[in-house]
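Structure tokens please, single chain.
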Amino acid sequence: MRRISGLMLLVCFCLIISVPAAQSAEPAKKDPLASWQAKFDPSDAEYTYILSNISHPVIEGVGVGYRIRDAVWEKSGGRLFVDFRPLAQLGGEKDVISKLKLGAIQGMLSSSVAAANVADRLGIVNLPYVIDTFDQLDTFRATPALWEPFAASAMSSGIKVVDITGYGPYGWATTAPVKTLADAKTINFRIAEAPVNTDFYKAWGLKFTVMPWPDVPQALQTGVISGLDHTAIVCNITKKFTIAKNFTELDYAQGLFVHLMSKKWFDKLPADLQKILIEVIEEESAKTRELTRKQYTAQIASAKEAGVSFFKLSAAEQQQLINDAAPVLAKWGEKIGIDYLNLVRTTLAK
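Here you go.
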């Protein structure tokens, strides 16, 4: 009995010391944001600006949040800390918009499709073939008659629209090649949770599923969806091309992140910090729009090198999409303001 008891004690002792050893041998989970950690201690900041985003900062239009953080910290002498929270740390976009309206957070880099839920006029950037090239986007931002009505559109909700960055032109990432509209009708496309997108997909006569972005990977893997309405930048960076190995370049709209800010919070900020914050956001956003052009070219090249096939619809079929969407533009023109929509279209067509 003494021997048995001794053996049991020895076994227990070995188990006790082996568990920590086994645990320590497990690889630590890598922090996906380790490369973006602040090189300063923000604990003594007088003011904090919590800024949310749903995507990964390797996308230039998202990474701008960290560049804004660092520039504001330096120019404010450490008085204002931009606490940037990407990767949906604060929840999905609809939840974050609610938090922004309530004042629980102060800012958000909202996808353009989600921003349309804040104010109808913000949906103009999602309408097909209205603001569809990088050059048109730059003209839109640089023209006060176009930009100012857009920027003021969410004020009734207590939200300022400060600036925009992007994630490239929209198209279709699909599991089967889509070279024609007949091919497209065989695909079940995932589209974003935005009423304007629902309207023009119905007008195009295509099958679609409205789905939150976090649900997309599993849906794509299991075949619930067979296509994505998104941009090549996002599809390549987030590894969607590992399953959907085809991309049809529609270029019907520019994917944007719209910088939304709580007006109530901003109005309480000292005037000098207001000036610093707005100037930095505008400067960094402009630089980032240029970086996005370069990232688009680089990501297309990377995807092609990895074996992704790229296609374009014929000019006639692209014109068919434009024609089929005409009733949607008329409907949204009433919401956005028909005079404003016409002004944007005629100015950008020059």
